[in-house]
Write a structure and sequence with these properties.
Number of helices: 4
Largest sheet: none
Number of strands: 0
Distance between the termini: 14 Å
Strand content: under 5%
Number of domains: 1
Amino acid sequence: MYHRAPTRPAAATWADYLLAAVIVAVALYAGGLVIIGQFIGDEVFGVLGFGPESAGITRGEALDYTTFIFGVLGAVIIGWMVLTFVVARGPLRRREPWAWNAVAASIGAWFVVDTGFSLAVGQVEHAVFNVGFLVPIAVALAALRREASAD
C-alpha cells in the first residue's frame, strides 16, 4: 500500500542534525581539497600515511598534477554533498522513503567503491580514513530508518 509522506518536515531529531553536521564537514573537507589541496596532500594526508610524498611523489610536475586532482575531487565531493544536504534537510526530514534510500545508496556506493579500491591498491590507511566518515552517517541513517518505520 502506498503511504503518502507528510507535507511538512517532522521535528528535527539528533539524527537529522548529526547527518547534516557530517555532510557539512565533508563539504568543508572537500573545499579544503579545492583551496589548499597541496597542503592537505602533503601535510594532512602525509601524517595519515597516504599523501603524495608517502607514495613517492616529489616536488615538481607530478605534485602539481596531484594538486589539480585534489581540486577536481573536492569540487565533485562538494556537488555531491550539496545534493545530499538538500535531500537530507527536505525529503528525508519529511521521512519520504525514497530520500532515505537515495542517501543510503549514495553513501554506500561511495564507501564500497572508494574503500574497495583503496584496499586493492594497498592504501589501507585511506580505507580506515573512510570509516571515520561512514560511522556517523550510518548511525544517523540507522536512527532515521527506525523513526520512519515506527510511523
